[in-house]
Design goal:
two-stranded antiparallel ribbon; 7 strands; 8% strand; Nucleotidyltransferase, domain 5; mainly alpha; three-stranded mixed sheet
Length: 251
């Protein structure tokens, strides 16, 4: 599926990197563990894509450039209900689900569509929590920073940018928890005079994903539907017809 081109290639790339493969010109060398395809998808020529995935695979993956109608169709695939929008008055998770499978179009209901649904649902939750903060504080957010392992890909950050409608930045160091612990340790050991001393150096960004207007419009339309579907799934869970993913003690 075209919209998973970069993600599929990155998964392959991460797998090779974990096995200590590296880039080198020329043909693939299994003994030396080198491969000319050890580069990001967008840096590969059409010939390199065909050499790596074969003619059919390269055509299936495509170039990731979709028309507005194609983007809307991708967004209208499977809906994921795997996670939770914060509500202190109703501290429970709905039963995790995938909705809207199309048995008449198996290609649109496969693993790729399910992965995308999970990522979209997580982005919807981030949007809902942002809106709650805005409602409580009046603060508005003109950008977002995406960290952790999810920030290493390209599809999920783009989905976040499109759902939130703001630029999403990927910092040079994505492991924010480990980085914060290191800064605290450095401050305690006297390496830094305070927690804010290394801040300028840490603002370096590896990438920025700008929201795509066509995708933003499609997600705006789908977001209200997702919230209503989630509310009804939670009602069904509360009625005991489904088991919740999690429920707080006393909830």
């Amino acid at each position: 599926m075209p919209f998973l081109a970069e993600q599929e290639h990155e998964r392959w790339l991460i797998g090779r990197l974990s096995e200590e493969w590296s880039w080198a010109p020329g043909p693939k060398n299994t003994q030396a563990r080198t491969n000319p395809a050890m580069v990001p998808w967008r840096q590969m020529s059409e010939e390199e894509r065909v050499a790596t995935y074969g003619p059919e695979g390269a055509a299936r993956l495509g170039d990731g450039e979709l028309s507005p109608d194609e983007k809307r169709k991708n967004i209208e695939l499977i809906q994921g209900i795997p996670t939770y929008v914060m509500n202190a008055k109703r501290w429970a998770h709905a039963s995790p689900s995938f909705l809207q499978f199309d048995v008449g179009d198996p290609a649109a209901s496969g693993r790729g569509a399910c992965v995308r649904a999970i990522e979209e649902a997580a982005a919807y939750v981030a949007r809902a929590h942002r809106d709650i903060i805005t409602e409580l504080t009046g603060l508005r957010f003109g950008e977002a920073v995406f960290t952790g392992g999810a920030g290493r890909g390209r599809l999920w950050p783009q989905i976040m940018a499109d759902v939130l409608g703001v630029p999403v930045h990927i910092p040079a160091v994505t492991e924010s928890s480990a980085l914060g612990a290191a800064i605290c340790a450095g401050t305690a050991a006297g390496v830094y005079s305070g927690l804010l001393e290394p801040r300028p150096a840490l603002r370096r960004r590896a990438a920025t994903f700008e929201p795509d207007p066509a995708a933003v419009a499609a997600y705006d339309e789908r977001y209200a539907n997702w919230r209503e579907v989630y509310r009804r799934m939670l009602d069904i869970t509360d009625d005991g017809l489904l088991s919740p993913l999690w429920r707080a003690a006393g909830a």
